[in-house]
Amino acid sequence: MSSVISISNLSKAYGSGFKALSAINLDIKRGEIFALLGPNGAGKTTLISIICGIANPTSGSVTVGGHDIIRDYRAARAMIGLVPQELHTDSFETVWATVSFSRGLFGRPKNPAHIEKVLKDLSLWDRKDSKILTLSGGMKRRVMIAKALSHEPQILFLDEPTAGVDVELRKGMWEVVRALQQSGVTIILTTHYIEEAEEMADRIGVINKGEIILVEDKAGLMQKLGRKRLTLQLQQKVDAIPPALAPYNLHLSEGGREITYDYDTKGERTGITSLLSDLRTAGIRISDLDTEQSSLEDIFVSLVRQQ
Fold it and tell me: Which end of the chain has fewer CB atoms at under 10 Å, N or C?
């Protein structure tokens, strides 16, 4: 799959000396959903702002669809739709007027049929004549997405798109995102709802302290860095883990009635068979057991802590 965005040695430093981004190298594949995760202040919004032409880099280069964002700004920016974190729109305009105006800003000819389709896809059609100030927070967020899609971009940036949106509307937005991807639009999103990235993204990038610390296919990331936990319910209470079981690094919980064992999914041997045997030898009897896979959130937190 070819790259639609290529970022090379991108850095951003401010006059105060603060370095927001440091030597970022990243390629976004055409047609993928790419999730950029990172704690507050990690550099997510700064990176998006530079790609979209809102902020200038200190060094490095970015191309969008082969167009340099500095030398060929208009062509690069025309390919991009941006849904920012903050809600910026004229409160006294109608939904129809503000979305149509956004299309005109990119020099696109009027196309009422496209605006109608966008508003219907985002469940805004019945509010097309309503003023923005009369809308709920969730609807205003959808208007921002409609504005970003008004000029038919090939790339859509969603910066915390579901912040302040209830669960039902959030699910509706992701249905729209999936439909956009199926139509060929490349989606780049940042989100605090890591479960959304786990469900939606094809690839995950983790940024921390202005540096990209990992880029990986979601499935590969879960397989390589994911761990599994075996939880054993005991027939009788245990006061302490016997010394002979120390190599397993077991954790005793639930008042001595539960033991947990973490193991590496990519290891040649899980150690479960020998653990169960050693538990029997130690006189510990099991009433039930369960396993669970570590989540993307577990992996994300672990990566940030390691850095």
Answer: N
Each domain of the chain, given as residue ranges in start order, spans: 3-222, 227-306
Q: Which residues are CB-neighbours of 267 under 8 A, at least 6 positions away? A: none
Q: Please give the Cα distance from 217 to 203 (Å, whole number).
A: 4
The position carrying tokens 């000029």 is: 151
DSSP E strand boundaries for the chain? 3-13, 19-29, 33-37, 59-64, 67-68, 80-83, 155-159, 186-190, 203-208, 211-217, 227-234, 251-253, 258-264, 286-293
The DSSP bridge pattern shows strands 251-253 and 80-83 to be unpaired
CATH of the domain spanning 3-222? 3.40.50.300
Instruction: Identify whether the C-beta of residue 213 lies closer than 8 Å to the C-beta of residue 207.
Output: yes
How many Å apart are CA 71 and CA 257, to the nearest integer?
A: 66
pLDDT in tens, 147-189: 999 999 999 998 877 666 666 667 777 888 888 899 889 999 8
Cβ-contact 144, 102 below 8 angstroms: no
Could you confirm whether domain 227-306 is CATH 3.40.50?
Answer: no
